[in-house]
Amino acid sequence: MATVELTSANFDEVTSSEGTVLVDFWADWCGPCKRFAPVYEKLSEQHPEIVFGKVDTEAQQDIAAKFEIRSIPTIMAVRDGVIVFSQPGALPESALQSLIDQVQQLDMDDVRKQLASHSHEH
User: If you ran DSSP here, which 8-state letter would residue 16 be given?
Assistant: First the structure.
């Protein structure tokens, strides 16, 4: 499966569904974003079970602002509607593959318990 363009019209629907969604925040003028794109595309073809979304931060400034994206590219991983990773910087293929493996292995019940306990502390 190739990448999916995420916009304000479909972002919440796509990222709140069951399963894993990776989001690449990028812009056309961004050199590192352009260099990262083929790596992201290649892994999207190797992992058809994952949604690989792309947010053009110029066209979708509301989404970029919502997630306080200050540097691009930024990679975000969402699993079963929960953001489990977000970090600026283009990842080499091996690091992106490692991130995918880690996200896929998460025990989401445990993640939800941890999130619940953190929200009670604050």
Answer: T
Tell me the CA distances in angstroms from 87 to 9, 23, 25, 81, 122, one per residue in order.
24, 11, 10, 17, 23
* Cα gap 7→16, rounded to integer Å: 14
**pLDDT tens digits for range 11-59:** 999 999 899 999 999 999 999 999 999 999 999 999 999 999 999 999 9
**3-state DSSP helix/strand/coil percent for the chain, to nearest 5?**
45, 25, 35
- Give dist(CA 64, CA 34) in Å, integer: 18
Work out the pLDDT band at 2, boundaries 50, 70, 90.
confident
Statement: the pTM of the whole predicted model exceeds 0.70: yes
Number of structural domains found in the chain: 1
CATH of the domain at 115: 3.40.30.10
Positions marked active-site:
30, 33
In DSSP terms, 78 is beta-bridged to: 21, 83
